[in-house]
Amino acid sequence: MSRTEKDLVVAHFDHGIREDSASDARFVEALADRYKIQFVCRREKLGADASEELARQRRYEFLRGVATDFDGVIVTAHHRDDIIETVAMNLKRGSRWRGLARE
């Protein structure tokens, strides 16, 4: 059986790291609604001091659960400036060059 647009589910995990992060969830929900795609969301309050690793772990726990619930696969989308954003955030937090290097 091939998958079609009807099989899509938009899953959004709101880390609660930024105070205004709920607006991102509303934006994604509105897009899903506009395109008539089922939307699933979870919000947690990890807080501003949460590590990227914790945020990633919680996001993928949520996504794996959604994939299981819908017998689906996980496909993520990131913007082109993710690396730039990560570098900027780490510099803001006081990271030196070793903190910016990839493993």
TrEMBL record:
Sequence ranges assigned to domain tRNA(Ile)-lysidine/2-thiocytidine synthase N-terminal in this UniProt record: 5-100
GO BP term (any one): tRNA processing
Signal peptide: none
InterPro entries: Rossmann-like_a/b/a_fold (IPR014729), TilS/TtcA_N (IPR011063), tRNA_Ile_lys_synt (IPR012094), tRNA_Ile_lys_synt_N (IPR012795)
The entry's keywords: ATP-binding, Ligase, Nucleotide-binding, tRNA processing
Pfam family, one: ATP_bind_3
Protein name: tRNA(Ile)-lysidine synthetase
Phylogenetic lineage: Bacteria, Candidatus Saccharimonadota, Candidatus Saccharimonadota incertae sedis, Candidatus Minimicrobia
